[in-house]
Amino acid sequence: MLSGAGGQGVQDGISFRRGNLTEHDLKILAIFFNTVIVVIMLVSGVWVGIDARRTGRTRAESITWGIFAGWMLIVGPVFYYFFKKYFYK
C-alpha cells in the first residue's frame, strides 16, 4: 500500500480514506460486480443452450433451457447438468 498525503493510502487506483470508500469508489465497485454477474448469466445461458442443442434437443427447447439457466444464475446450470438425462429421453 502506498502512502499519500494526510495519511491516506492508494492501492490499485481505489483510494481509502481511513478505511472508508468514497461514493465514487462504491459506484465503480457496484458497476464492476453487476457486470460480472451479467456476464456469468450470459455465459451460463449460452453454455446450457449449446449443450442442449448438442444433445439432440429442439431449437425451441435449447433456447428455453438457455434462458432458464441464464436467469437462474447458479441453480439453472447445475439443475440442467444433473437432470438433463431425465427429460425427454
Short recap of the structure:
Helices cover 61% and strands 9% of the residues. With 89 residues, it is mostly helical.
How would you sum up this structure, described in words?
There is one protein chain. It contains 3 helices and 3 strands. With 89 residues, the protein is mainly alpha-helical. It has one domain. Helix 1 runs antiparallel to helix 2 (59-71) and helix 2 packs across helix 3 (75-83). The radius of gyration is 21 Å and the shape is elongated. It starts with a strand and ends in a 6-residue tail after the last helix. The mean pLDDT is 79.
The averaged pLDDT comes out at: 79
Biggest sheet features: 3 strands, antiparallel
How many strand elements? Answer: 3
Helix and strand pattern: EEEHHH
Approximate helicity band: 55-70%
Defining traits:
single chain; 89 residues; mainly alpha; elongated
Q: What's the SSE blueprint?
A:
Blueprint: E1 2-3, E2 9-11, E3 14-16, H1 23-54, H2 59-71, H3 75-83
Antiparallel strand pairs: 1-2, 2-3
